Each structure stands twice: as C-alpha cells, then as structure tokens.
C-alpha cells in the first residue's frame, strides 16, 4: 500500500509478509479507501501456507479488512473466515465494505469482538454491504440477492469469479464483478453481475425488487445490474442493464444527468434494451463501453479488440473519457 501526498511525494509504503515467513504467497487488494484523518482501509484476500503478517501483525484468515494510520502503521484488522470482500468506499466519512457469501450467515473477528451475522427472511442474500467505524466496530450489515418468496427462496448467485489473476493463483478477484461507487447525489452505487438464469424471478435488494426487462439467460450467462443505496434508508432501487456474456466490469460512473456508464470485457454477445449485439469473432474477448438510463435503457455502446478498457470518467459537458491500454492495432 503506497500513500503519496498532493505533490506525489511518498508518505509511506506498507507491504504484506514483511517477516518473510510465507515465501511464494500471493495477495490481492480487492478494495481500498481512506478517511478524513488520512487513514487507509483495504480489503484483502491472501493465499499462504501459514499465517501472513502486515508489519509483523499476524492475520489468521485469508479474507480481512486492514486499517493503517496516516503513517502507514498497522492499527487493526477485521478477519472474515467465510466472507469475501470485493470493494470498499468512504462517503461522508462513513466507511463501507461490499462482499459475498452472506446467504447462511457469516462471522467477523473485529477489534470490538466477534460480530455474527444471522440472516432473516427480510435481510437475506448472497451479497452484503457492511458499515464500520474508524475503530473497526461493525455498525450494520445488509444482505441482498434473495430470489423467490419467503417460504421458498435461494441466492441469486453473483458472478464473481473473473478474471483469473494467473494460472498459479487459486483465487479470482471479486472487485471487477461487484463494485461500489459514489453517486453525484451522495448515494452509494453498486454495480455487478448476476447469474442470468435467475433474472426471470423476483430478486430482492433488501425490500426492493430488481427491475428487469431482459430475457432469461442460461447458467453460463451473466446479467449486469446497477443498484442505489441511500446511506440512511438503504436500497432504493435496482435495475438490470445487459445480459448475454459480459465477463467482468472494470469501472463505472454515474453522470450528472443520471445515466450510468460502464466499461468491461465481454465475448460472443450482449443483450440490451436495443436487442442483441453479436461480436465479429466467436469466443474472442472484446472491451466495451456502454451508457444506460436510470431505467436500464441503452443509450449507446462501443466495443474494441486488442486493447483493455481500464477506467471511465465523466466530464461536465456530458462526454465520457475512457482509459485504455493498446496491445496492437485495434478495431473500435
């Protein structure tokens, strides 16, 4: 974790496995944020044969949220044996983490003691959004992604296992399939991918049902969604945007006029309110950038090969900027 000041001068550099007791171990940071005191919070998944450490402080579980102070010194960790964290965000100095595996409940080992989440009919789902304070105390947890009625329900299955980091690593990054962003209105936005075979049934984001007008897909297909979470009242709406074979998203933003712009990777076909887009070459990977209304209607979409769309920015005049890496001659 590297912190720079406003002039690009390094303030601190903090590394994993500083004691060197896990040679060859690998770690991911699936989300990172900070607070007004310049403390850093990051969500990690770490694969090691033994316990790993951050500045000599041992972490027993492979999934954890770690806090560093403004000098890069270790303050605390929230360890999660059963939950996978996918992203973190701070809004109005309130700290949130997003993750999956909340369907049957999960436990968090916090500086404040054990926090056990036991789902109820009204707060059940595979994914979750969790708020914590600066001392590592979990303030609340809301699960989402329940399919079906209260008498017979099942998880919607968030498609969170892409892309593979490398062939030797037994874990895939979650962040690119369940991502948190701040809305211009101050709400928290969640974008991600669902199993496309579930969208024909009612999918609940706490007390809000996912709005869907797309055809039901197969278990091998995915569906891109966007949901809005008010910091005080919870989920206010959720809507599907595209299905088919979007593989993962790399970034998204909300524009000043309430439209959503996504960039990511797909192959074979994408299905939107405008019909089916079939890519030129079967099973080849294409990068896409697409804009949708708040109701899930496609505004426009572009795609390219031989490059990677890594990020998207929205400008005051309504235009969009895409950060891309070109690997060769490309088609757009």
Structural class, from secondary structure content? mainly beta
Helix % is: under 10%
* Cα shape: globular
How many DSSP-defined strands? 28
Measured distance between first and last alpha carbons: 35 Å
Q: List the total number of helices.
A: 0
Calculate the mean pLDDT score and round it. 88
Major sheet summary line: 8 strands, antiparallel
Q: Rg from C-alpha positions?
A: 20 Å
Topology order in helix (H) and strand (E) letters:
EEEEEEEEEEEEEEEEEEEEEEEEEEEE
How much beta, percentage-wise?
over 45%
Q: Which runs of at least 5 residues are low in confidence (pLDDT < 50)?
A: 167-171
Question: Which descriptors apply to this entry?
Answer:
eight-stranded antiparallel beta sheet, single chain, globular, 0% helix, mainly beta
Describe this structure in words.
Helices cover 0% and strands 55% of the residues. It is mainly β. The strands form eight sheets. Strands 17, 18, 21, 22, 23, 24, 25 and 26 form an eight-stranded antiparallel beta sheet that branches. Residues 167-171 have low confidence and may be disordered.
Please sum up the structure shown:
This protein has 332 residues and is mainly beta. Helix content is 0%, strand content 55%.
Note the topology.
Layout: E1 2-4, E2 10-13, E3 26-34, E4 40-47, E5 52-54, E6 57-59, E7 63-68, E8 74-79, E9 84-91, E10 94-100, E11 106-110, E12 113-117, E13 127-132, E14 138-144, E15 146-148, E16 153-155, E17 178-182, E18 188-195, E19 203-205, E20 208-209, E21 222-230, E22 234-254, E23 260-272, E24 275-278, E25 285-292, E26 298-304, E27 307-314, E28 320-326
Antiparallel strand pairs: 1-2, 3-4, 4-7, 5-6, 7-8, 9-10, 10-13, 11-12, 13-14, 15-16, 15-19, 17-18, 18-21, 19-20, 21-22, 22-23, 23-24, 23-25, 25-26, 27-28
């Amino acid at each position: 974790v590297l912190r720079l000041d406003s002039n690009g001068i390094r303030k601190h550099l903090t590394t994993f496995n500083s004691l060197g007791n896990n040679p060859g171990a690998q770690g991911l940071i699936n989300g990172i944020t900070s607070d007004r005191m310049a403390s850093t919070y990051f969500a990690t998944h770490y694969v090691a044969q033994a316990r790993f450490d951050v500045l000599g402080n041992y972490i027993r579980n492979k999934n954890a949220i770690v806090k560093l102070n403004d000098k890069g010194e270790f303050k605390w960790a929230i360890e999660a044996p059963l939950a996978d964290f996918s992203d973190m965000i701070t809004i109005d100095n309130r700290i949130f983490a997003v993750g999956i595996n909340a369907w049957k409940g999960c436990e968090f080992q916090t500086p404040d003691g054990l926090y056990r989440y036991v789902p109820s009919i009204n707060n059940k789902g595979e994914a979750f959004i969790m708020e914590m304070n600066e001392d590592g105390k979990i303030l609340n947890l809301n699960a989402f992604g329940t399919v079906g009625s209260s008498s017979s329900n099942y998880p919607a299955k968030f498609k969170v296992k892409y892309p593979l980091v490398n062939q030797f690593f037994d874990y895939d990054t979650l962040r690119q399939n369940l991502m948190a962003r701040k809305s211009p209105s101050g709400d928290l936005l969640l974008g991600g991918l669902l199993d496309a075979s579930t969208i024909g049934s009612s999918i609940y984001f706490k007390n809000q049902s996912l709005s869907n007008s797309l055809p039901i897909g197969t278990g091998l297909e995915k569906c891109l969604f966007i949901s809005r979470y008010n910091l005080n009242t919870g989920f206010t709406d959720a809507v599907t945007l595209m299905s088919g074979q979007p593989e993962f998203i790399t970034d998204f933003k909300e524009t000043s006029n309430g439209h959503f712009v996504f960039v990511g990777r797909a192959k074979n076909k994408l299905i939107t309110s405008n019909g089916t887009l079939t890519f030129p070459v079967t099973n080849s990977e294409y990068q896409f950038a697409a804009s949708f209304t708040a109701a899930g209607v496609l505004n426009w979409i572009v795609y390219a090969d031989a490059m990677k769309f890594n990020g998207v920015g929205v400008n005051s005049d309504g235009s969009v900027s895409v950060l891309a890496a070109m690997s060769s001659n490309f088609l757009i």
